[in-house]
Amino acid sequence: MADWMSEASATIVVMNEAIGTLDGIREQLAVLVSSAFDSGAMHHSAEAELLEALRAAGDLQRLVDAVLVEGVAEIAERSRQRDRSERLSTRMGCHNVNELVQRVTRCSPQAAGRLELAQRAVGVDWDPIDGEAMPARLPAIRVALRDGEVGVDGVVAVAKPMLGMRDRVERTKVLAADAAIAAFARGAGPDGEPPAWADLLAVQAMVWACALDPDGDEPRDRDAGLDRFFTMGKARPNGITPFRGGATPEVAAQLQRIMDASISPHVQGVQFAESDGGGVGSDEDDGAWVDQRTRSQKQHDALASALFAAAASGELPTIGGAAPTVIVTAYAADLARGSGWAFLEGTAEPISMAAATHLACAGAIQRVVLNEDGRIVQLGNLERVFNAHQRRAITLRDGGCIIPGCGIPAGWCEIHHVQEHARGGPTHTDNGVLLCWGHHRFIDTGPWQIRMREGVPEIRGPAWFDPAQRWRRVTKSKTRLLRLLQPA
Description:
The protein is of the alpha+beta class. Helix content is 49%, strand content 12%. The chain has a four-stranded antiparallel β-sheet with strand order 5-17-16-15. Strands 6-7-8 form a three-stranded antiparallel β-sheet. The chain has two domains: 41-216, no CATH class; 260-485, no CATH class. It is built from 19 helices and 17 strands. The chain has helices at 2-39, 41-44, 47-77, 88-91, 97-105, 109-122, 139-146, 152-164, 171-186, 198-212, 218-227, 249-263, 283-286, 295-312, 332-337, 353-362, 388-398, 437-441, 478-485, and strands at residues 125-126, 133-134, 229-232, 243-246, 271-273, 328-329, 341-344, 350-352, 364-365, 368-370, 376-379, 383-384, 414-417, 432-435, 449-453, 456-460, 472-475. Mean pLDDT is 77; it is low at 266-270 and 273-289. This is HNH endonuclease signature motif containing protein. Keywords: Endonuclease, Hydrolase, Nuclease. Residues 389-441 form the HNH nuclease domain. Pfam families: DUF222.
């Protein structure tokens, strides 16, 4: 009993000293940070000094992460009692460990969840009988966390695939993978690479998990298939229809690739030629387009482009012998005037005439004339707006969406009548340009203006893009760009 009391007293002393030390470090760091912020030290620093400051801060952050993970592990340990009233989280007035961590550290629920996941991987459990510590699930990563070689991001990156194997893999093999990944994190891997950051650790852990558990978690894969869903709610008063869903990994990955391809910041923007054909415009004329859409809006437009491209591909199942087609009804006079409302088959929510014009421009039109009693008195033939040969020709000329900075490829674009079809605009290559769904949908109400000059599209952008407000030829065709760059 005396030995136990002595050990407990020593532990209390060590903990008090640690708290005092942490408080002292915080006070010193607060003075340094305040001075750096107020003096603009980062702004005035040399590049090497800036990077060194970030490196040092990262080193400190990882050590702080170790303290946080160990503390959360102990909170979790003290909150496992069967009797809810005896749990630490309950006694502190919180619903669970996550809420307690949020309140103590002032972090988000997501950050608290990451700390919980990290502690499950590297936290130690204590034997309830003899009070001895039991090994962590990933002991080598635990040591790397203690030494400041990995932080919470790194531990979480490793924990997801490694813990996902559960009991399907022998413990000795898991420990071998744990040791190899920890060495990789320290920069002591077999290839002598520098210390790895979180994304590289995630790749390493996933490769090890695939190697050790080649069959994967079959119940998990089956459950994912059973749990997949997609639902559409009722249209809201503002016309927006909410979606909810859960995708299997391969579907989510495909959708993510579509999003990435559509909204990547690395896509090459449109280049301009002078309107008189006198060569490539200057740098100050070209400028840099700033896309003012939010990321969520860009992702919506990318999904719309993919859906409309799939519907137009001719490879989807047919409905009533025809490809999936959105049917819009409107009065011809309203369509020509550009005012009033139109209606979609399958929903009671009306759409604006601008949306109806967009659909009519991108699809096919069949004129059905009704008398005042609703009787069909005339049925016209289906008019395809642009045929395949015209589309190929326009694609060669435009290359993709002609709006500056938009990277949507030609295959996902729609063909826009510069002079509206409903107002007599011809279905001719001299009157059609490629626009992605998002820019096509709002071309009439947005800041971009398009005109055709001798069969070549020209763009006039908003004042924030081009203060001169000049009409500029759009040049995305690689053949035409090469011709412009070659000497006369």
